[in-house]
Amino acid sequence: MGRAAPLPTPPHPRLAPDALRPRHRRRGRPRPRNRPAPKELGYHREREIGRAYSLQLGHTIGCNGLFTNLIRHSRQLGATGRLTAWWSATRCGRHWGDIVNPDGYGRWQQRGREVEWFVEFDFGTEQLSRLAVKLTRYARLAETTGITTPVLMWFPTAAREAHARQTLADAQRALDQPAHVPIATTSAETAADPLDMTAARWRPVGDTGNNGRTPLADLPTLWPGLPAPANLGDHRPASSDPTRPRFGLVAPSPLPPPSPSWRRTA
Fold it and tell me: Tens of pLDDT along 163-183?
């Protein structure tokens, strides 16, 4: 199959160790008087170096890239699709974390049809068996909320995706209600842009034929019995615990506000 596609490149350079040192130290100057030491502000050089080079940072940047790519598509001149919701892993954890922690939640609207999904962004560092175990948690979430939500899984290489599909198919068949956890997969090698979710790149788990790949907007056609998403309303889907008060602020629109009129006409 040739060389594997590289993992997504972070949109900003990671900090070099020297950049993590206080500025006055880099210039050989004494610390100014009446200015608190970095440690007094909670700064720890070793911890920040760990963050700058952590796999978790790369995972977060890659997963966020899936959604920022959708925002870019939404803002193109003459765009026919629009990202209507984007929840980070942190917000997903607060809402459903007592059952499952998705890497993200999103909604896409195109041609009068809306599709919602959870995303699992595989960085190639986790055992596939652990990913398969997550299906039982998604099944429990569907049973608790009464809502069936597709799970889209992204893999770094086609080989990794192929191995995962077999593992996931076995785990899905073992569920009491396999239809409650619809799954589709893709890899960075499937399309020219490894992070373009709108491309015809999604293939449902359990598909043994040669039916090709499906674009994001057409995902509902893969599962004809899948109900249409409920009205998003205040951007808060059903919680895994209906008795728990809703937390925090309402999720904002994922799209930036339009440019001011003076900027558009300049």
Answer: 999 999 999 999 999 999 999
pLDDT digits (tens, 9 = 90+) for 5-63: 444 444 444 444 444 455 545 455 665 667 777 677 777 777 777 666 667 788 889 99
Per-residue three-class SS string for 83-100: EEEEECHHHHHHHHCCCC
**214 φ, ψ to 5°?**
-120, 140
- 3-state SS, 126-153, equals CCHHHHHHHHHHHHHHHHHHCCCCCEEE
pTM value surpassing 0.85: no
Residues 6+ apart with CB under 8 A from 169: 205, 206
Closest CA to 94 of 233, 239, 231: 239
| 125-135 average pLDDT score | 90
Tokens of 141: 């979430």
